[in-house]
Design a protein that fits this description.
heterodimer; A: about 675 residues; Four Helix Bundle (Hemerythrin (Met), subunit A); 6-stranded mixed beta sheet; 5-stranded antiparallel beta sheet; about 20% strand; B: about 160 residues; alpha+beta; OB fold (Dihydrolipoamide Acetyltransferase, E2P); 5-stranded mixed beta sheet; 11 strands; globular
Chain lengths: ~675, ~160
């Protein structure tokens, strides 16, 4: 396998398409795994995706991917055609996911232009073993309906279903569309039409004609028909799929053909365990609608190089500044220019809109990142023998693409933590009087110019005593217990080298966890806070800025230097009264605000610039706050509030020294540079 | 084929026209030279925004048509006394790799072509004697120190580690 250059557009396309297919596949597998049964749609989808990957990877000469996808394709071909009973669905999804992982890994190698050295033979062996096991297990059913297992690899013609064994028993459970009304009458219409197909059927509830109450029963529990017919599964399926007002139906072929009279209303949990062939289907129109939608989505989306997008972003940023330079040019002052100002307003409006548009291009919903977490929950909980249910809320929340890349790892870590440390074993949970299945909730929501991502579990929570004990052992705390706030204690987990987990597991507990999460978030201007109640669970909140590129900033002046502070972190600004000032013997200045005492930070001292005022009462004090820490920042003057485009400090400066108090710089309307203060950095000084 | 050859030819010619050309600038009584291919432009003194906690020779950052570049005072860099900026003071914008930096010098003199035989290697001196000097050029009775641009921009990082530590 020769090395390929990444510039090859065909290879690019292959990588892009395969990655998309694989991702989609993973999502749908996880979805059906929750429902404990593979729907016909999913089986078809897996088959189709594997077929595509097989074809394209064979074309690109990635042989190992090709053989693996071929094996999975074979397996699903069999499942699709034979619908074997007694299948170990869990094992099946494991196999497919393993396959997906393998392909993902190989794709990474393709991207890095490394040789593909992964050996899928073990995996293929287990897939083959699984296939033969279901073939043997299902051989009776297969021969019964007179079908042959697939002989050839390449000619997939659906075997003829007609002429199969006569008088098979089916059970259909159908739900009508919400709000269509008169469910009992509609049910009766179906039974009436069903008479064309078979005479041998019964249904629950039985009193649909006489009892109007039955409409409610049908609405809630569905309408169940048991029937015996010599018609094929397909014909029945088409019959129900073609019936109006049916929202959802489930057609099952009963393998052991029980007496029709004996059928009872199946309970939902029994249903999942029942070893019958289950094929769930959405109503035909819905499926069609969905397909049409995904098709049109594919047409209207193009993928663009992020570098180009960054460039565009920069240009628009510069344009905003240039626009300000033109329209607020000091030379225009005191001139009567009515039509100029009209035109300038128009220009400002358009640049503003353009800026918003470019920003929105870079915004990506969190859903892809969130869905990845599903997989982690599944893997971890299964390995640890825990039962965990994952709920996603607000995955449509949009965040700048750069930020998404930065939070994916920390989020993964937090979710893993929640399952590993948070959720208890099923037995412990039952003993604690909690439901057996643990809940992990991943929630995203907008809060002003920030996005909050909340990872919540209902596990055992974090023990404050344990943290304190550990922290003392490792020498992290110097204060007395009663001096520490709850938040401070929990946030100790984020200190480097801190881990309360006694045993190191495969997934977590090496003490390199939370501090990495904190550091990564701080790198994008975010923060982490932890809250927990022992026995009830833990809530970890990540606060991340909506975007890195543009912030609402307050410009301040100290002497001839200008600085910008994110408006969101300014609590208040005021002029200081001399009587509120306190000085301790070491010369540290403090200010009393409404009974609370805060330290005062003089910007001119901190940054060693010549300020106009050294008298605190002459300048202005800005109370800045982050993570419940608050400090008074002393400056000469407020210049006003503007939207500023954040630019990084030149790399030369950054290499020279990372200045803790600076987050970046920005160009002001007059072309001068203002330094953006890093509030978190200032507070930790 | 012929066309590509032509292109290559012009490119090498381009490279050739820059080769051996040095921008000569002065600081105090001394003349310094810098290879012209590293220099993107020469501008007058600009408003400079101070950046705190930087070594003294880094004066701050300046706005070069929307691009923010750091500015370094060459006098301070070579441990000479600071001199008031005047209308002769220039900022030479130097670019190596992807790093751009402005170098403040007293004044810019001329562009000289120096043949290889006009350039003498720096005399051997104790360790670290000539970190930034690539050679000594001679032209018209004048002697000038030729600076190693790359060293000038990247060696700082080594210093920086010392500074932080």
């Amino acid at each position: 396998m020769g090395k390929k250059t990444l510039n090859d557009p065909i290879l690019d396309l292959f990588i892009y398409e395969t990655a998309q297919n694989i991702e989609q596949l993973e999502t749908s597998i996880l979805a059906v795994e929750k429902a404990s049964s593979f729907s016909l749609d999913t089986i078809n989808e897996i088959f189709r995706v594997m077929h595509t990957i097989k074809g394209s990877s064979a074309m690109m000469m990635f042989d190992n991917i090709a053989i693996l996808s071929h094996a999975i394709e074979d397996l699903f071909y069999y499942i699709r055609e034979e619908k074997p009973a007694d299948m170990d669905w869990a094992l099946l999804s494991d196999l497919v996911l393993e396959g997906v992982d393998f392909i993902k890994l190989e794709m990474e190698k393709v991207k890095n232009a490394d040789g593909l050295d992964g050996d899928p033979s073990e995996l293929i062996k287990s897939i083959k073993a699984f296939l033969s096991s279901i073939k043997n297990g299902g051989s009776k059913a297969a021969s019964e309906i007179g079908m042959n297992p697939p002989v050839s690899e390449h000619y997939y013609l659906a075997p003829d279903n007609k002429g199969s064994a006569r008088g098979k028993a089916y059970e259909v459970m159908l739900f009508f569309e919400e709000g269509c009304g008169m469910e009992n009458i509609r049910a009766f219409a179906i039974t009436h039409r069903l008479k064309d197909l078979t005479e041998d059927f019964s249904y629950i509830p039985e009193d649909i004609v006489d009892n109007a109450e039955s409409a409610v029963v049908i609405r809630e529990h569905g309408f169940i028909i048991s029937l015996k017919t010599d018609k094929s599964y397909k014909e029945l399926y088409d019959f129900f799929a073609g019936t109006a007002y049916i929202a959802d139906f489930e057609l099952k072929e009963l393998t052991d053909a029980p007496e029709l009279e004996k059928i009872e209303v199946p309970k939902s949990d029994e249903e999942t365990e029942a070893p019958v062939k289950t094929v769930k289907a959405q109503s035909a129109e819905q499926t069609d609608g969905g397909q049409a939608e995904s098709k049109s989505n594919q047409h209207s989306i193009i993928s663009v190089d992020v570098i180009k997008l960054d460039k565009l972003m920069d240009l628009v940023g510069e344009m905003v500044i240039a626009e300000a330079m033109v329209t607020q040019n000091p030379e225009l002052n005191a001139l009567q220019l009515n039509s100029f100002y009209k035109a300038a307003r128009q220009l400002r409006k358009i640049t503003g809109e353009m800026q918003d548009m470019v920003m929105s291009i870079r915004m990506v919903p969190l859903s892809a990142t969130f869905r990845k977490m599903n997989r982690i929950v599944r893997d971890v909980s299964r390995k640890l023998g825990k039962e965990v249910e994952m709920t996603l809320i607000g995955e449509g929340t949009e965040v700048d693409k750069n930020i998404i890349e930065h939070i994916s790892d920390p989020l993964m870590h937090l979710v893993r933590n929640a399952v590993d440390h948070g959720i208890e074993n099923p037995n412990e949970r039952l003993a604690a009087g909690k439901p057996k299945i643990g809940q992990v909730t991943l929630e995203a929501k907008n809060a002003g110019s920030d996005v909050l991502i909340i990872v919540k579990d209902d596990g055992k929570g974090i023990s404050k005593e344990l943290i304190l004990k550990k922290a003392r052992e490792q020498g992290f705390v110097t204060k007395e217990d009663n001096e520490l706030t709850e938040k401070e204690i929990y946030n100790m987990i984020c200190l480097p080298g801190f881990s309360t987990n006694k045993d190191i597991t495969e997934f977590s507990g090496r003490g390199v966890g939370m501090d990495v999460v904190t550091r990564k978030l701080e790198a994008v201007g975010g923060s982490v806070s932890i809250d927990s109640a022992e026995g009830a669970g833990t809530v970890t909140t990540l606060k991340i800025p909506l975007t890195l590129a543009i912030i609402d900033g307050m410009n301040i002046r100290v002497g001839s230097s200008k600085y910008t502070i994110p408006t969101t972190s300014i609590k208040e600004t005021f002029r200081v009264e001399a009587r509120d000032l306190i000085q301790d013997p070491e010369g540290n200045e403090m200010i009393m605000v409404r009974g609370q005492c805060y330290p005062v930070l003089r910007l001119h001292k901190l940054f060693a610039v010549d300020g106009d005022n050294t008298d605190l009462t002459k300048g202005i004090l800005l109370m800045i706050e982050q993570d419940e820490k608050c400090v008074g920042l002393f400056a000469d003057e407020l210049l006003g509030q503007h939207q500023v485009v954040v630019k990084a400090l030149p790399s030369y400066i950054k290499n020279l020294k990372q200045v803790a108090g600076l987050a970046g710089c920005t160009l002001l309307g007059d072309g001068s540079i203002s330094l953006i203060l890093n509030v978190g950095g200032l507070l930790s000084m | 084929m012929a066309q590509t050859d032509l292109f290559n030819l012009t490119e090498t010619e381009d490279e050739d026209t820059l080769r051996g050309k040095y921008l000569i600038f002065s600081m105090g009584d001394e003349f310094f030279g810098m290879e012209i291919r590293y220099i993107t432009e020469i501008i007058g003194i600009q408003p400079i925004t101070e950046v705190p906690e930087m070594p003294e020779y880094v004066k701050g950052v300046t706005n070069l048509r929307g691009k923010i570049i750091p500015v370094m005072d060459a006098r301070l860099r070579f441990k000479k006394a600071l001199r008031e900026y005047d209308d002769r003071t220039c900022i030479i914008v130097v670019e190596t790799g992807d790093v751009s930096i402005g170098l403040i010098v007293d004044s810019v003199a001329e562009v000289l072509t120096l043949q290889d035989e006009d350039i003498a290697p720096p005399p051997e001196m104790g360790k670290g004697g000539h970190k930034y000097i690539k050679g000594i050029g001679k032209a018209g009775g004048n002697v000038m120190l030729l600076l190693d641009c790359q060293r000038l921009l990247t060696d700082d990082e080594l210093d920086a580690i010392g500074l932080v530590g």
